[in-house]
């Protein structure tokens, strides 16, 4: 990537990671804090207060993604960040489960992930777009690992309200970056913009949408069980970050050569299939996990595959929907949010009904179905040698 592409990609990855931090930072502490709130004795209400972020996002991804195609990315991202800040302040102002749910809903209404991914595609050449998407996708894994490290110390120091204030401050900083650092992107031409129906039913995009649903449904379901496995193996909850953080960082070093080689050889379809197989292997290893070493190995295999897919899939969506990137990525991110919610709901039901190992069995079955679906993927669109994106980036 040239300096302009790298600067823009890093800025957008930071903004994307901030939104994911708004989701992940609460996971280690919210259920504990909610016990002392009115209604907090009901797990369903606690789950809804936590999950409303994803449900509201799912409702707004497509409209905001399509709007960014028409009026440009910057105003949509700026507006979405303002809702993120407003929602965080609502949560901080009232230590009440209902108001926290309302605030989380407002935060979710600023569903800008599709616009951000489309903006990355606008500002990068196709030759480097997968690497750019890798940085943005990697912000998800880093946000998750970071939340596991800092959530408990921040909560002990400034409580849940303080966490929301921190998120609001970070949101304001992201708004400043959006306004002053990132260049404008031109709206997509209306004359060539595909309809939502056409984008939704395009076969290759349907494969990618099914993939992101399975990816995130199995992710959130898996992490309902993995912390328990680590505790049972003898690692206390406060020390779990000692496993997560090195595993996530090492996974980036292992996946980078695979991604670069696949891009140079134009074999991204093969890389995608290999990544799905890695996830499938990880799910199978988890069923035999009895020690910290085995669990760490399974996590490493999982995150290598996960990070590859987080980089590849949005890049492929942007290439299969060049004329309507925001719309296509809106559909993509909607299925991602539905997958997160579904994984939590189904994973919890399976744990209660059939035990922890059933979650990994479900994950393996879904990944096998995804592998079959992805196997018939067509050859990828040829890269544009003379891309105008580099000019837009400058």
Description:
The chain is mainly alpha-helical. The protein has a single domain (3-183, 195-377), classed as MFS general substrate transporter like domains (Growth Hormone, Chain: A), CATH 1.20.1250.20. 80% of the residues lie in helices and 0% in strands. It has helices at residues 3-24, 30-34, 43-71, 73-93, 97-109, 113-123, 126-180, 196-201, 203-222, 226-232, 241-264, 268-286, 292-320, 325-354, 357-375, 389-393. The longest helix has 55 residues, at 126-180. Mean pLDDT is 83; it is low at 384-394.
Which helices and strands appear, and what pairs or packs with what?
Layout: H1 3-24, H2 30-34, H3 43-71, H4 73-93, H5 97-109, H6 113-123, H7 126-180, H8 196-201, H9 203-222, H10 226-232, H11 241-264, H12 268-286, H13 292-320, H14 325-354, H15 357-375, H16 389-393
């Amino acid at each position: 990537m040239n300096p302009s592409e790298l600067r823009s990609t890093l800025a957008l990855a930071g903004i994307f990671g901030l939104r994911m931090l708004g989701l992940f930072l609460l996971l280690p502490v919210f259920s504990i804090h909610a016990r002392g709130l009115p209604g907090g004795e009901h797990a369903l209400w606690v789950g809804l207060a936590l999950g409303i972020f994803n449900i509201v996002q799912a409702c707004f991804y497509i409209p905001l993604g399509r709007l960014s195609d028409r009026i440009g990315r910057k105003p949509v991202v700026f507006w979405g960040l303002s809702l993120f800040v407003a929602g965080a302040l609502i949560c901080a102002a009232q230590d009440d489960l209902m108001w926290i749910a309302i605030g989380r809903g407002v935060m979710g209404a600023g569903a800008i992930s599709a616009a951000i991914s489309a903006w990355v595609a606008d500002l990068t050449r196709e030759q480097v777009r997968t690497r750019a998407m890798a940085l943005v996708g990697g912000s998800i894994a880093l946000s998750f690992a970071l939340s596991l490290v800092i959530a408990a110390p921040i909560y002990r120091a400034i409580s849940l309200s303080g966490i929301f204030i921190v998120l609001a401050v970070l949101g304001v900083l992201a708004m400043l970056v959006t306004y002053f650092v990132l260049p404008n992107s031109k709206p997509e031409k209306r004359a060539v913009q595909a309809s939502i129906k056409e984008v939704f039913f395009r076969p290759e995009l349907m494969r990618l949408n099914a993939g992101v649903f399975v990816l995130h449904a199995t992710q959130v379901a898996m992490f309902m069980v993995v912390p328990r496995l680590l505790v049972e193996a003898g690692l206390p909850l406060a020390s779990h970050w000692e496993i997560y953080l090195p595993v996530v960082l090492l996974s980036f070093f292992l996946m980078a050569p695979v991604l670069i080689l696949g891009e140079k050889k134009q074999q991204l379809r093969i890389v995608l299939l290999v990544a799905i197989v890695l996830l499938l292997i990880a799910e199978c290893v988890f069923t035999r996990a009895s020690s910290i070493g085995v669990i760490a190995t399974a996590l490493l295999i999982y995150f290598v595959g996960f990070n590859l897919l987080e980089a590849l899939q949005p890049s492929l969506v942007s290439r299969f929907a060049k004329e309507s990137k925001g719309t296509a990525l809106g559909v993509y991110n909607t299925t991602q949010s539905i997958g997160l919610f579904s994984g939590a709901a189904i994973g919890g039901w399976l744990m209660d009904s059939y035990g922890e190992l059933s979650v990994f069995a479900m994950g393996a079955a879904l990944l096998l179905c995804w592998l079959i679906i992805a196997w018939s993927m067509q050859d990828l669109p040829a890269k544009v040698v003379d891309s105008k994106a580099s000019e837009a980036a400058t």
